[in-house]
Amino acid sequence: MTRGEQAREYQGHRLLRYACLLYAIGLVAHGADHLRRGRDVLTPEVAWAGILTTIVGMTVIALVFSGHRLAPLAAAAFGFSNAAAVAAVHLLPHWSAFSDAFPGAGLGVAATSWAAVLIEIAGLLALGAAGTYVMNASRRPKTN
After folding, report:
1. Is residue 120 exposed (0-12), middle (13-18) or buried (19+ Cβ within 10 Å)?
2. DSSP letter at 96?
């Protein structure tokens, strides 16, 4: 592997860690906001979905920061799919039991709620993009 290839690989993994850090900040802020708003505003479906995705998200964070070989794949798969899920739960008007809709919710949803969710979604999209970048970079043909 040439120095240039090593540098690109290192930059890709560094980018993945930064994206993961942004997601982690959003995850903590979003969780804290749910505690602030209270559990009574959530349906059981939203609460369980949040618990499960938090567990998976923490697993992805551990994979990324431990440098596991599956971290880019996990980041790409989880990042893009969970960004869509969080957006559907919070940014769409009420549509099902899996909805904790911010639009039309009134005063219960403060600007901090919007900020926390948007930071988490941005982190998830960055995580997905960085994971995809690292996977694509590792597939490039090696030069001698």
Report:
1. buried
2. S
Helix (H) or strand (E) holding 102: none
Tell me the residue type at 47: A
pLDDT in tens, the chain (144 residues): 677 666 667 788 999 999 999 999 999 999 999 898 887 888 999 999 999 999 999 999 999 999 999 999 999 999 999 999 999 999 999 889 998 888 877 666 788 999 999 999 999 999 999 999 999 987 766 655
46 alpha carbon, distance to own chain's centre: 17
Closest CA to 123 of 19, 34, 52, 3: 19
Answer yes or no: are the C-beta atoms of 30 and 120 closer than 8 Å.
yes
3-state secondary structure of 92: coil
Helix extents (H) in 38-110: 44-66, 71-90
Q: How many CA atoms lie within 13 A of 112 on its CB side?
A: 11
Largest CA distance in the chain: 61
Q: Which two tokens stand for residue 2?
A: 């040439």
pTM for this predicted structure: 0.88
